[in-house]
Amino acid sequence: MITTDQLLTTTAETTVASINNTESHSSEKPNFGPLSGKDVRSNRGEFRRIRVPPHRLTPLKRDWLKIYSPIVEHLKLQVRVNPKTRMVEIRTCDETEDVGSIQKAADFVRAYCLGFSAEDSLALLRMDDLFLDSFEVKDVKTLTGDHLARAIGRLAGKDGKTKYTIENATKTRIVLADSKIHVLGTFQNIKIAKNAISSLIMGSPPGKIYANLKIVASRMKGRF
């Protein structure tokens, strides 16, 4: 017959043994090996679709070799244009070395579809600190009719002079697509360009913007 004292002693010994086993297992750190791109692709392939606006289909056909070559030769991805859905389809394959390269390719094609040239969009593949920011004139100030048209005219300037001045001073690329504005560059440069664009939308004269951009350009040269 098992007495109460024996039962308590047996239970305590079992509890202590289980705690010791748990501590010994928890003290052992898991060892995870490096994950390669092939291991990720074995589970599932990455796939991206980028819609092409109607007004960019003809330039896409003209510059297709400039877009196709870096994606296939350097990033080792597969790409095609689906004419029915008007989309550029990108996917990984067995030759793909970097899993994150498909996102770079998607950003590259998206920048081209927004209106940037193939050479400017290609910088997204070569540099890691470039970004693409988009906003509308109405995000800065609610304008309609002729007031909106005049604001867009102030942004472009005569023969695009104002836009080129902002691009050269801030080392960015700007696309004016109706009331939408797309800016390509580094984070700090995009911020400076957006401040200049916002001031023009609010009604500041271009001469004042030029003076501010000269100060900014001199500061940027002093940093380097």
Automatic annotation (TrEMBL):
Entry-linked PANTHER family: RIBONUCLEASE Y, RNA-BINDING PROTEIN PNO1
Origin: domain of life: Eukaryota
Keyword Nucleus: yes
Protein name according to UniProt: Pre-rRNA-processing protein PNO1
Annotated K Homology domain residues: 137-202
UniProt keyword terms in alphabetical order: Nucleus, RNA-binding
SMART domains: KH (SM00322)
Subunit structure: Component of the small ribosomal subunit, ribosomal RNA processing complex (SSU RRP complex).
InterPro entries: KH-I_PNO1_first, KH_dom, KH_dom_type_1_sf, KH_PNO1_2nd
Job description of the protein: Required for small ribosomal subunit (SSU) synthesis. Has a role in the processing of early nucleolar and late cytoplasmic pre-RNA species.
Disordered as annotated region, ranges: 17-40
Entry's family note: Belongs to the PNO1 family.
One GO term describing the cellular component: nucleolus
Keyword Signal: no
GO MF terms, alphabetically ordered: RNA binding
Compartments, record wording: Nucleus, Nucleolus
Subcellular location, principal: nucleus
Organism this protein belongs to: Coemansia reversa (strain ATCC 12441 / NRRL 1564)
